[in-house]
Amino acid sequence: MTDWTRASALEMSAALRAGTVTSVELVQAHLDRIAGVDGAVHAFLHVNTEDALAVAASVDADRAAGVDLPLLAGVPIAIKDILVTKGMPTTAGSKILEGWMPPYDATVTSKIRQARMPILGKTNMDEFAMGSSTEHSAYGPTHNPWDLDRIPGGSGGGSAASLAAWEAPLAIGSDTGGSIRQPAAVTGTVGVKPTYGGVSRYGAIALASSLDQLGPCARTVADTAALHEVMGGHDVMDATSLDQPVPSCLDAARDGATNGLKGVRVGVVKELGGDGYQAGVKQRFEEALDHLRAAGAEIVEVSCPSFVYAMGAYYVILPSEASSNLAKFDSVRFGLRVERDTIEQTMGATRAEGFGDEVKRRLVLGTYALSAGYRDAYYGSAQKVRTLIQRDFVAAFEKADVLVSPTTPTTPFKLGERVDDPVAMYLNDIATIPANLAGIPGMSLPSGVAPEDGLPVGFQILAPAHEDARLYRIGAALEKALVAEWGGSLASMAPELEVTR
Amino acid sequence: MSAATHLVGYDDAMAAFDPVFGIEVHVELNTKTKMFCGCENTFGNEPNTQVCPVCLGLPGSMPVTNEKAVESAIRLGLALGCSIRESSRFARKNYFYPDLAKDYQISQYDEPTCYEGELEVVLDDGTVVMIGIERAHMEEDAGKNTHVGGTGGIQGASHSLVDYNRGGVPLVEIVTKPIEGMGERTAEVARAYVATIRDIVRALGISDGRMEQGRLRADVNLSLRAKAAPGEDQSAVPFGKRSETKNVNSLRAVERSIHYEAGRQAALLLAGEPVVQETRHWHEDTSSTTPGRSKEEAEDYRYFPEPDLLPVEPSREWVEQLRASIPEHPAKMRARLREEWGFSDLEMRDAVAADALTLIADTVAAGAAPQAARKWWMGELARTANEQDVELPELAVTPADIAQLQGLVDEGKINDKLARQVLEGVLAGEGSPADVVASRGLEVVSDDSALEAAVDEALAAQPDVLDKIREGKVQAAGAIVGAVMKATRGQADAGRVRAIILARAGVEG
Fold first, then answer.
1. Is B57 part of the contact surface with chain A (CB cutoff 8 Å)?
2. A81 contacts A119 by C-beta, under 8 angstroms
3. Which of A285, B56, B192, B268 is the most exposed place for a label (fewest CB within 10 A)?
């Protein structure tokens, strides 16, 4: 009997069309897998059993009746708990939203429902997406399926781990400074942050509005492309949403896998490598470059001198916007309420009890950075750095069609190792943050495991704004070469998890 | 307790000090939907029924700018003589308050859409004052707190209720530059300025400007400074500390709040005590102000550009199109109409006060003579409105109806008395004046043969009348006129009846 959890989303789609499997069978297989391994992995905060099976049954019925269905109809998906889902609890990993039942669907949630995809559940994350390890979730950390003692990345560690643990074939993430790409890198999966505005943010609980972007997560480049096409597109409810057609991601992936990369200029960013990058990470990166060369690409070196300021600017802009975005958690209309004598005291007590330490740290930082007398020095300067970084990218993209780097400087570290050292934790995102500051699209895909620790290494591709399709073309070409070399997907090489029931 | 417990009279205060004032006016726009969401912008609904995830500030929701509100704001800015910024931004004004759903207000800060304007204000005696406008910016209104128990204030309340229906209603805030040199006319100028803003928003059709319902609200800043010594330049004397009186919600209150604050501040200064820079609340019942919540330090709103919204970038073509649609300045329009219509100052003022100007203008445009139009609206119709306790424009009669009615009178088809009956029919929904004349059969009887028959009948009943007339007692004809009017149910032309009687008597009329 086929273990359908090991298939790709597109394989599942094909099998559903061919009638070799039903959506109910697919959903049940994944629910069983979740029941079997999620006690150890803790990728899910909420499992949506009944609704997922009901959607699956309705898809099966429609298919039997000959109804024309969308490509991914019947293929299950996991959704990061940052996206509001009507009738399904949504916490953003925070105690302050414990038990909140949203009265409305995010635009992307609606699109998933319209695509007739059964939603398996909501995945764990660092509280309000602040973190790189899921250790800042109010509901306990997610464990990396490659090594349960290690972090699955963050903030979208739950979505990435659900893929690596075969609990879901597809997942939705959000990426403010690397929260899709860094978890993808450390779990041996694929994740894409689209161009800012390419996917509607309406209904995604805001961390930093000018940086946040929802994106697709999967185990293969083509699956990620298929999900990207479902999620993307203009939305009148999001004023920053791009009024452009959804990029042809799947076609680009097929093109890359079939036709190679002749004439493509790949720029290696000098500043995103070297000192501070683990030896095995560098080694796998160099090997990936060799594969790209072999596929016909030209490798050039580019320099982005302002990237050195990216981390500093990011940790001013993000907390500033977050300090305002998270003000609404005031006990008045929803979520936790810790009653005191006056409304001011009630608001204070609710926030003191409802927010975790990392959230408080960033809210204090942001409140300070925006306060009178400091705003220009902090927020103002950070915006200037942002402009410089955008200029660096413009210059670099004159020399190269895409830019590449390791996604993270290291393979996943141990749970607890950096939780008390915020700066060390922040450094994990050094290579992913510039893309958010510039609004450009980026992908992380597996480039093997580091020889020294056997843990996954991610390869990052960045493209100019609106050129998301390039990520899929280059990514698919590289994936094809690597999978051929490995004799299977990297995910399939992870140690088997113990299944308990 | 302050030594300065007695107020100084307004005139004395103005004689002793040089006043400087400024006004912030908030105008609630009458767009169909709210500023950043699709909820209906209506008034007086059940609490929390005009709300959605956006104006409730639910997690994940995002604002989208109402283009119609931007249009209204730009038109208002143009009417105030402002420049319109090619690119302006919304900003977040951050503060925690239960009626503020997101705990920040989307407003405009360093890049208001409309800036640097100048407005002509005409005082009652015709004096023209120029008021500098610093900016007119867009923002969203907050919800409304109701404190239950205690005295209705937040202190001592057992609990508070919040209604978010008003949350997200579009506002334009108009801020003046400091207004100096008005001396004892300060209160009058302030009132006239707010009245002019009200007239402008009504003429633009962007708000009903009803202060009593909070659609137009004024915050009045006032400070007093020492008078310049002879030969010294008054503008070189630094401003005094100001108070800001919040939510002054009638024209009369604008004037009276300045009277009160001037007296209060003068008393403090004359007693050698400092004026505290603070916000104060206006109390309509006592015509006085009390201090707002004392602030240890100025509130820090941590403004920053709203990242969820794109800049407002109106094309120059659009702005010019809007500029072409700006109505005439209300004061200038009044002067022009007064001239054209030949109204006295008093007639004009009464018409303005009754909100009848547009109605009269429309009636004139529909063909009536200005004085006739004025008499209808300020006479019979004003009485009717008063009886029904409604505003003139709410009456079930149009300027075109009135013009038609007057036309029927002018043509001699109906007389004044009948015209009132016709109007009654129109107000009762019986159709146009012509319809009512036809359906009620109210046309004046001017057919001489019918009138002659009626006269002869009446004369037959009172045979001595003709002799009396011939003896020179012409007034005796009145009895016959009365009898004929009665017989024709008032539809006879009294003048014609009289002429027939005189002819029967063989005397000249």
1. yes
2. no
3. B268
- How is residue A177 annotated by DSSP? S
Strand residue runs (E) in B89-229: 91-94, 104-107, 114-122, 128-140, 144-148, 159-163, 170-176, 179-180, 216-226
Task: Please give the DSSP secondary-structure letter assigned to residue B329.
Answer: P
Domain for residue A339, yes or no?
no
Specify if A359 maps to a domain: no
pLDDT in tens, B445-501: 667 778 888 888 888 888 888 888 888 888 888 888 888 888 887 778 888 888 888
**Which chain A residues contact residue B103 at CB under 8 A?**
327-328, 330
What whole-number distance in Å separates Cα of residue A401 and Cα of residue A418?
A: 36
**Strand A402-406 with A265-269, pairing:** parallel
Q: Is it true that the peptide bond before A155 is cis, omega within 30 degrees of 0?
A: yes
The structure's pTM equals 0.88
- The CATH code of the domain that includes A213 is 3.90.1300.10
Q: What is the CA radius of gyration of chain A?
A: 21
Is residue B383 within 8 Å of B397, Cβ to Cβ?
Answer: no
What DSSP designation does B73 have? Answer: H
Looking at the domain assignment, is residue A153 inside a domain? Answer: yes
Whole domain around residue A177: which residue ranges? 4-308+384-493
Number of domains in chain A: 1
Joined tokens for residue A310: 């990216």
CA distance A371 to chain B (A): 5
Residue located via tokens 């977040």: B92
Please report where in the chains the tokens 């697709």 appear, as a residue. Answer: A216
Contact with chain A for residue B489, Cβ under 8 A: no
Instruction: Find the helix or strand (DSSP H, E) in which A173 lies.
Output: strand A170-174
Tell whether ipTM is more than 0.90. Answer: yes
H/E run at residue A24: helix A23-41
Q: In angstroms, what separates the C-alpha of A334 from chain B's closest C-alpha?
A: 8
In a domain, A351, yes or no: no
Range B448-504 has CATH code 1.10.150: no
Which of B63, B96, B302 is opposite residue A330, by nearest beta carbon? B96
Active site residue A80: yes
| Extents of the domains making up chain B | 3-301, 328-440, 448-504
